[in-house]
């Protein structure tokens, strides 16, 4: 079955010292996290890649990864497309003074006209591991309608500062019932805590790796209209249309069933500049163990 990977790469990490954190090399060959995600996606069976970026970073993005990935994908019969997230592409008036992007929901809608198959969504600057791609792809390929890779909480923490995580609540059949957005999470000797409250390090969290179908896009688009009617007037400069929040609303209303697919792979991200050395060391270890080859795409 044809399947699409949507990579959300429109953001520049403000906590990362002003650079485009998605383009930071993580190995001696100059590969970035996105290279590994694309490798794992192609290996899992995805055959269409869509980059969602901003128009103003297109030249640098193509130079650092886009053109190289296009050549790799062409050799493996994988299509590549670009979609552009635009602050002005909204179902309403742009509030005066608004400069903040509209969030992951709008990022996905930017690619709506390019998505014709079941699709997965990931963040550009996050490393998810091979297992998540396999499980999401296989769930969609077998006719599943909505799923989410659930990462073990302790495998997603940073040593260098607080993080926000969506902690999953599920029923006995591993269907998602709620995502509890939890802020100010810090690592502790026994696991993790948020604002002094201990958290279960074995619980599953959402790292924004979703599997969905094209039918979801019409619902998402209607939700964006309602977001502009209800949320934007209350907080015109900062309101964000976020996939986890919208999925949570659909779950509450009984309009969507989302299967949580557990993965024990370690998630790596570069939330803080201080995370970079540890992330690079992790990739070095995976290369030494043979999880990947130095010629990254040679085994596809």
TrEMBL record:
<protein>
    <submittedName>
        <fullName>Nucleotidyltransferase</fullName>
    </submittedName>
</protein>
<dbReference type="Pfam" id="PF00483">
    <property type="entry name" value="NTP_transferase"/>
</dbReference>
<feature type="domain" description="Nucleotidyl transferase">
    <location>
        <begin position="6"/>
        <end position="155"/>
    </location>
</feature>
<dbReference type="InterPro" id="IPR005835">
    <property type="entry name" value="NTP_transferase_dom"/>
</dbReference>
<dbReference type="InterPro" id="IPR029044">
    <property type="entry name" value="Nucleotide-diphossugar_trans"/>
</dbReference>
């Amino acid at each position: 079955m044809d399947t699409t990977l949507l990579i959300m790469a429109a953001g520049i990490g403000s906590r990362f010292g002003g650079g485009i954190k998605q383009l930071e090399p993580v190995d001696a060959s100059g590969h970035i996290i996105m290279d590994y995600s694309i490798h794992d996606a192609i290996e899992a069976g995805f055959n269409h890649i869509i980059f969602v970026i901003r128009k103003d970073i297109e030249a640098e993005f193509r130079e650092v990864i886009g053109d190289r990935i296009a050549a790799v994908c062409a050799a493996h019969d994988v299509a590549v497309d670009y979609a552009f997230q635009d602050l002005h592409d909204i179902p309403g008036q742009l509030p005066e003074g608004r400069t903040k992007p509209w969030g992951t929901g709008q990022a996905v809608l930017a690619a709506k006209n390019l998505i014709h198959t079941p699709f997965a969504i990931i963040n550009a600057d996050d490393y998810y591991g091979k297992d998540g791609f396999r499980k999401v792809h296989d769930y969609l390929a077998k006719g599943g309608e909505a799923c989410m890779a659930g990462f073990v909480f302790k495998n997603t923490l940073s040593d260098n500062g607080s993080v926000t995580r969506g902690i999953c609540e599920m029923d006995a059949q591993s269907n998602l019932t709620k995502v509890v957005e939890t802020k100010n999470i810090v690592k502790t000797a026994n696991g993790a805590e948020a604002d002094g409250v201990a958290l279960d390090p074995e619980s599953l969290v959402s790292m924004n790796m979703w599997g969905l179908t094209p039918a979801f896009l019409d619902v998402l688009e209607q939700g964006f209209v309602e977001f502009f009617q209800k949320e934007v007037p209350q907080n015109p400069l900062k309101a964000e249309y976020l996939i986890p929040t919208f999925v949570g609303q659909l779950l509450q209303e009984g309009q969507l069933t989302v299967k949580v697919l557990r993965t024990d792979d370690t998630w790596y991200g570069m939330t803080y500049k201080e995370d970079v050395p540890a992330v690079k060391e992790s990739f070095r270890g995976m290369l030494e163990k043979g999880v990947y080859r130095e010629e990254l795409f040679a085994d596809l």
